[in-house]
Structure formats: C-alpha cells, structure tokens
Design a protein that fits this description.
The complex is a heterodimer of chains A (347) and B (336). With 347 residues, chain A is mainly alpha-helical. Chain A has 12 helices and no strands. Chain A is flat. In chain A, 39% of the residues are buried. Chain B has 10 helices and 12 strands. Chain B has an 8-stranded mixed beta sheet, with helices on both faces. A 4-stranded antiparallel beta sheet of chain B has the order 2-1-4-5, covered by helices on one side. Chain B is globular and about 65 Å long. Classes of the chains: A mainly alpha (347), B alpha/beta (336). Chains A and B meet through helix 9 and helix 10 of A and helix 2, helix 3, helix 5, helix 6 and helix 7 of B.
C-alpha cells in the first residue's frame, strides 16, 4: 500500500530542490569567502579559529533593509509621490504659477451683485477669486506657506520634545516627574484649543505665531513618546553592557540610548507633519494666521470662501482638496515608514 | 593552571544583597556569599534561575540599581573594597580592571553602532585613545577572538553577525582594555551547542594565555566541567557546596549538587529511561533563617533540616552546607 502522504512529501522535496538550485550561486560565494583567522586556535582547541562564514554581499543597515521593503510598498509609494510632488511644487511655486497670486487680473470682471467670482476662462483655468486673483496661482503659491508652517512647526515641536523627553527619560526621579506632569497638563488641553490660545496671545497674528502655536502643541506628544522609548532603552541589555564597560553617563545617554530611542519619534514626526498642516489650515481658517492675504494660504483661502459657498463652492473645494491630499500623503508615508521600521517586522 | 598559592585577585566576603520595596517584605537575593578568584583561575557560580548568580555578579560590578536594594559585605579587589568606591571611581574601573560578558549577545550590543566602534569606545574611554588610533587595535581584538575578516567586520552592525560572532565581539569588547578579571554571565546560554563549545574554548584559551581571572556564572554543569577550576554551587542565595571541579563531580556531597548531576541526560543511559529531575521549584524554598531552604525539595531530609540552618563547613578546598550530606556510595559508580 502506498503512503497517501507521499505525494505531499514529493512536492515538498521538489520545492526544496528548487530552492536549493536558486540558492546555489550565493552559497558558493559565501563558502568561498569564509576566512579563518589564523593563529588563534591552539592545538586541540574546539575550532576556535572558525566562527562561521561571511556573506559576500556587504551587510545591510536597518535603514537599508527598511528601504528594501518600502520600495515595493504601494502605500508608501503613493504617500511618497504626493509628498515629493507637494514639496517640489512648494519650492518652485513662483516659477510654476502662471500668474502673480497677489494681482487682481480679473478685477474688471467682478460684479459684486451679478458675478462676484469670475469663472474659468482662457489663461485662468480655475477662474479667479472675489477680487479677481487667479485661483490656480494662489493654490500653487499657497503650498509654500503650508509647507513652511508644517515643517517648522514639526521641527520646533520635535526639538522641544527631544529636550523634554531626553531629560525625563535619562534622569529618573523628580526631573522625570516634573517634566511629565507638565506634559500631562499640556496633553489634557485639546490641541486646537491650546494652539488657538497661544496664537491669540501674540500681539499680532503672523506666520510665526502660527508656527510657534502649533509647535507647542506637538511638544508633549514627542516628549511622552521619547520618554517611553528612552526608559525602555535604559533597562535594555546593551545599556547595562555599556555601563559594565564604564562608559560615561553622557555617552550612554547620547550614543547608546537616544539613537535607539529615536526611531518611533522620527516616524511620529512624519505623522505630526500632517496634523500640523491641518492645524495650520484650521487656525488660518479662523483668522489666526497670516493676515496678509497677498501671500495665500490654503486655510485662509478656505476661510475667505465662506461667504461664496452657495454660489461658488469651488473656492472652498480646491484649497480643501489640497489640504486633504497633502495630509493624506504625509499620513500614508508616515504609516508605512512606521511599519517598515518596526523592529517586529524586521527579518 | 590553578595557582592557588597566589594571593587572590578578587575576594568576595560575606556579600549580601537585599531587595526592598516600600510596603513589601525585603527579599534577600544573595546571602553571605564568599569566594575568591586568583589570577589565571576560573571560578564557577552554579545554580538554577533565581539562586542569585547574576545578582552576585552585578553587585561585584556595582551595577545594581541605586534604590531599592542594600548591598553589604566586602568585595576586595587587590586591597580596595569595590563596594565602598564612589560611582565615578567604580566607573573608571569597570571595563578597565573588571569586565563582563553578558548572556544574550544580540541585545547586549548596541544595534545602531558598528561593532568596531563599540570596541574602540572602550579604548577611547579608558585609554584616552582617539577612535582612529584605536581602530587597528579593534581589528586586532576581533581577530584574536576568532572573527574572520576582521577588517571588514569592524564596520558591521550587530544584526549582520551570527550569534557566535556576536558573542565573540562581546568578548573582544570586554577584553579591549586587558582587564584582570572577567565575569561571564551565562555567556553560552543564547548559543547553540557547537558555538557554545567554541566560545568556551576561546574563553579558556584567553584565561590561560593572559592570566585573566574568570568568574563563570552558569546553570550548565557541562560548562563547569569543561572550564572551571573551583565550583561554587548556589542555592537560594547561599553557597551550599564548593569544591574543585574533579572532586565535586566525582563526589557531590550536597543533595542539591547530587540532584543536579543526576538530572543530566546521559548518552549511555538505556533507551526510554526517564530523567531524574529535582522535584519542586525555587518557589518552594523555606527561609534560610531557621531551616535549610532546600529541605522541601531534598531527596533525604531529616528532622533538623526544617529546624535549623546548616552552616557552611569547610575542609580543605571543599565546603558544604548540609545536615545530611550524600554518602559517596549513593552516587552512581561511573561518576567521571
């Protein structure tokens, strides 16, 4: 009687053979490069002079292996595409924009009663706003402000969070408690409300009050995250090993703990970037952004379009769509980065 | 190999470590442990999980957390009591005079720094060398511990190395400043058997070549048999038996040591024979104050075992803490 499981066994064997065939060239290379360090193994010692083989290919770092996975991830590619085009658009906005966003080219066409917002026409594909300025140019140039506010708010928030988080994570005891209670208080206030209050404190609203307000809101998020990962690092084996080697405290914090704790924080930064952009738009919408509407900003455009929302919804639609797409791009990129750098998915 | 006439490099006298948390009973993890290590000698600390092996080593290194524990006794390193040193003074000694090899080589290496830099870091710290000057030494060290192609390997990150190579790298880091005492805390536990043999052979060779004293912490009696000159068997934070490895393996006196040796699977045992474990677990321990902690798990307890604590009685190189020691005849005839 034949074994009913035999065909499975055969299939498996074939598969293994196929794999072996595939693996062969690499294997020979690996064997060829195995070098035994001479002179260490004394006679009779149990193969001290051979610690195994060396792979011919140069090793891949954490980032390189993450990149290998990311390269094939459609979610990441979509996010990266949106993000990169947004950044390029913002950098070259003045070159790309067909018209000056501050000049009312179509002001002659504006009739406050019959035609408050001129529609699309030759050279102005999206039409103009209520003072005759080219809508497309304003959208393109508006990306600059959005990028500046988003990036700077995130960077400042990150710096603040790094300082607080490192302090709290590196020193236990009262420093940790004090810093974390402050962070808790900040986190307990709704973020937009906090940003609103901070920007309202400024004597005159401007781009920079917007940046500072949003940055302050991000600080506790980063601080708390970093403290958590720092604490995890502090109790890790390699930090104990470093202490056992008499490494100085500052070196342990800045070379052994911080770089290892930074990964989740950097990923969080890409996610926070999206939140910053939305917050910035929200605050500008409420009139707390740059009051000078010659420099367009998407949230501010959205706010100004309110009075025309029934007859000309495109004035609100275009900037809103821009905000959504850009925020989505950063979020997609951040999420897939987080997945790729997650140590659990490594190897 | 054993130069027992030399003065000890490190002598641990009556070391006790008590962990205490607010509102909880204090727990004595290490209880009056004494032993000595001479240059070129290997002393083993053997015992199961929770018997205080690792806490002993951390206490010697001064690496226990500052709060929540009390360390008493004396750790004499060539005349200085390490326990009385300030943090800074102790930090200067760690890595230079005393180094440690840890259990899990992957998690004990910093994942974001190339291995070579981790070797040079110690040299930079204790020898005041620049990284550039220290790099050739790092290559030499990696070569010495048997890492092939060290010139390229110095640039590798820990995750690019195999387990055995990582452990070799850890040993290279520990040896960077030529410490006179090396503490190896279960250095072979995370490795497979063939690599274990290589690492042990490497350690043995290093001890013999350089006259480094080695404290070997392990739960593996095979490691002890292959490496240690003197063996201390720990149970519940106390040394229960001490002896030269040959004597100890040939003639275990304490029922715990005897049980450990009996529980090792034997190649020459008849097929189907079951292992002889020591019944119970560390959780069954009695407090040492008024009993023998091992009594509930002991194969031959007598009445006095649950009434008074046995004292450590030494005779020559042997020492024993037991009311009712194993008689030689009870041990299987083929001991060694």
């Amino acid at each position: 009687m034949t074994n009913p499981l035999k065909k499975y066994g055969d299939a498996r064997k074939e598969r293994i053979d196929d794999l072996a065939k595939l693996a062969k060239p690499r294997q020979t290379a690996a064997v060829g490069s195995s070098v035994s360090a001479g002179g260490t193994g004394g006679p009779g010692s149990v193969g001290v002079d051979d610690a195994g083989t060396v792979h011919e290919a140069p090793g891949v770092s954490l980032i390189a292996s993450a990149w290998r996975r990311l390269r094939r991830n459609p979610v990441f590619l979509t996010g990266a595409f949106i993000t990169v085009s947004f950044i390029l658009l913002a950098i070259f906005a003045r070159v790309i924009a067909p018209h000056d966003p501050a000049i009312g080219y179509l002001i002659d066409k504006v009739r406050p009663q019959s035609n408050p917002v001129p529609g699309p026409e030759e050279g102005f594909p999206l039409g103009a706003d209520n003072v005759g300025r080219d809508l497309l140019s304003r959208l393109i140039v508006g990306s600059q402000q959005t990028l500046i506010v988003g990036v700077f708010a995130t960077v400042f928030g990150l710096i603040g969070g790094l300082i607080l988080g490192t302090l709290a994570g590196a020193f236990s005891g009262w420093i940790d408690s004090t810093v974390m209670r402050v962070v808790d208080v900040m986190l307990s206030i709704p973020s937009l409300l906090l940003a609103l209050s901070i920007s309202a404190l400024a004597p005159s609203p401007s781009q920079w009050t917007l940046i500072i307000a949003i940055a302050v809101v991000q600080v506790p998020i980063f601080a708390r995250l970093l403290r958590g990962t720092m604490l995890q690092q502090r109790s890790s084996d390699h930090v104990l090993a470093a202490r056992a080697l008499g490494i100085k405290r500052s070196a342990i914090i800045f070379r052994h703990m911080l770089p290892n704790a930074l990964g989740p924080v950097i990923v969080q930064a890409t996610l926070v970037l999206a939140v910053s952009i939305i917050d910035a738009a929200g605050l500008s919408f409420l009139g707390l952004g740059n009051p000078d509407d010659r420099a367009p900003e998407w949230g501010q455009m959205l706010g100004q379009s309110q009075q025309f929302i029934y007859d000309d919804p495109q004035l609100a639609f275009y900037p809103a769509a821009c905000i959504i797409v850009v925020a989505l791009g950063f979020t997609l990129m951040g999420e897939s980065l987080r997945e790729a750098l997650d140590p659990k998915s490594r190897r | 190999m054993t130069r027992s006439t030399d003065a000890p490099l490190l002598s641990v006298e009556n070391l006790s470590v008590t962990f205490q948390r607010q509102g909880e009973e204090p727990f004595r993890a290490v209880d009056g442990v004494s032993f000595a290590v001479r240059p070129g000698e290997t002393v083993g600390l053997v015992g199961e999980s929770g018997c205080g092996k690792s806490v002993t080593s951390l206490a010697i290194m001064g690496l226990l957390p500052k709060r929540g524990n009390k360390v008493t006794g004396r750790v004499d390193y060539e005349g200085t009591d390490l326990l009385s040193l300030s943090d800074d003074a102790m930090r200067d000694r760690r890595g230079k005079d005393i180094a440690m090899v840890f259990q899990d080589p992957l998690s004990s290496l910093n994942p974001v720094i190339p291995v070579g830099v981790q070797v040079t870091e110690v040299l930079e710290r204790h020898r005041g060398m620049s990284r550039k000057a220290a790099m050739p030494m790092a290559v030499d060290l990696l070569k010495r511990v048997g890492i092939p192609d060290p010139n390229r390997r110095v640039k590798d990150y820990p995750h690019q190395m195999s387990g055995g190579m990582r452990q070799r790298a850890l040993i290279a880091i520990a040896l960077a400043c030529a410490p006179r005492l090396l503490i190896a805390d279960e250095p072979t536990t995370a490795l497979d058997v063939t690599i274990q043999a290589q690492i042990l052979a490497l350690l043995k060779e290093l001890v013999q070549d350089t006259g480094t004293a080695l404290i070997m912490i392990t739960h593996d009696l095979g490691v002890v048999a292959g490496l240690c000159d003197e063996v201390n068997v720990l149970y519940g934070g106390k040394i229960v038996e001490r002896g030269d490895r040959h004597e100890l393996f040939a003639d275990p006196r304490h029922p715990y040591t005897n049980g450990l040796l009996n529980s090792i699977p034997r190649l020459d045992a008849p097929a189907g024979e079951r292992l002889n474990p020591i019944p119970g677990s560390v959780a069954d321990n009695l407090p040492w104050d008024h009993a023998c902690a091992f009594a509930p798990r002991c194969s031959q307890p007598i009445e006095v075992c649950t009434a008074t604590m046995p004292e450590l009685e030494s005779a020559g190189s042997r020492a024993l803490r037991c009311h009712n020691p194993v008689q030689r005849t009870e041990w299987k005839e083929d001991a060694r």
